[in-house]
Structures are given as structure tokens and as C-alpha cells.
Design brief:
- The structure is a single chain.
- It contains nine helices and two strands; from the N terminus they run αααααβαβααα.
- The chain is an all-alpha fold and 271 residues long.
- A two-stranded antiparallel sheet has the order 1-2.
Length: 271
Amino acid sequence: MERLERCSRCLRAWLVAAAVRRRLPWLLLGLVLLGSALKDGELVPETPMQNKRNVLNVYFVKVAWAWTFWLLLPFIGVTTYLFARSKFFYGPAKSVLAAVRRLSALLVGTAVWYVCTELFMYIENLTGTCSTSSELSEAHQLFTTKQDCHRNNGIWNGFDISGHCFLLSYCTLMIVEEMAVLEGLSIDQNSRLRVVINSLFVSLCFLTMIWVFMFLCTTVYFHDFSQKLLGALIGLAAWYATYRVWYLKPFSPGLPLPNAPLSSKKYSYSR
């Protein structure tokens, strides 16, 4: 438990600071530019990360929203409840309502993930054409979707907005925003809840590192520059529209409690 506590303190100083929340969007955009420059200049060595079947891609990135959702779910619920009880002196019922309200941010995130990924697939189908080895014998057959093309051993050529750049940037920014609750939360050293929160926090930190690393790998090995940039910009726009605009409004999931109490705007994030 001592190692967990030391690890939590170290990571808290690194990832929970307000400066990280301000600079992280610019870092992600910088990685898009850097990775694309390295890819276009053919300066990237061959590594296992350029294989789409690598372990991190298959077991983490392909289900990135599931990892983010299920780790943030208990973290937001427990920290919001404790903060409402200790800082605002809410009763149990009102603290539960505060936690439920904040957890609705995960429903918003799920909607963002679903709508954007469906939109990306629609755009790719709309702009694409299928190339097959049997085009001469089956010239009359048209494939209107990427799935139909692949089922017939074809290659689909469309505008493929980078879903990885979108989702990894959005998940990274969302996790860092939600971890900001720890700036104002104090828990007794001997409390079991402290161990639970530290475990969730450390897990979220390592997940964030994986997302940033895989974001970099995507920019270095996959997609055209415009596809990566547009994917990242959509992820940043989704984060900004929620955490910097909508969540400041009364009828919203609200911001993490130390920064924006449910009934006040004076604690809003410093820009």
C-alpha cells in the first residue's frame, strides 16, 4: 500500500495540475504534426507498433471507450460523493444525486463516441470506391460500402478520418479533466476508500499514458495528415464543447466538483 501511495502522489503532481489540462490539447496537436512529418519523411524505423495486430491496439485501443468508461465510472462516482459530503456538507441523498449528475458525463461521452464513429464510417463509404482483382469479370457489380468491398476481397479507397486520433484524444482529455477532482479532495490516510481511489487513479494514469503513446504511434505509422488532423480536431472540439462550454451551464453534468460546485460558477477552471 505504501508503494501505491507513493506512486499516486508522484502521478498526482504530474497529471492533476491545471497546467497539464491547459497544455495537453496543444501537445496532442503537436504530436499530429511531428508524427506526420516523420511519416512523410520516411524517418520512422520498423517496429511492432506498425502492425495493427499489436497487443496494445487489439486489447486496448480497439476498445478504448470501454476501458475509459469502466475506469471512470467508479472513480467519478466515489470521488464526487466524497467531495460533496466533505466540502459542501451535503447529506447522503444529495451527495448521491451529485454523483449521478456527474456520472451522466459518461453518457454524453458515449453519445459523442457513437455519433462520431458512425459519421466517420458514413463519410468513408460516401467518398470511397472499391478496387478488386476481378474488376474485369465483375465490372457490372458495384460495392457501395467498405464492408461489402472487404467481403469480396476488395480494397476500399475512401476518406478515412482517423478514429484512433479522435477517440484517443477525446479519452485522454476527458480522463485528465475528471482527475482534477483530486486537487481538492482529502481522505484519511487509513481509509479503505483512499486505497480504492488511489488504485483507480493510478490505473487511469497508466491508461492515459497508453492512449498518448498509441496516439503518437497512429500519427507516425497510419493515415494521411489530413485524416489524422481532422480526427484529432474533432476529438478536441468534442472535449471543448463539453468541458469548456456546456458543462459550465446549469443543465449539464457539470464540471468536477472542486472546480465547479453544482450551484456556482465561481470555481470554474482557470483558462
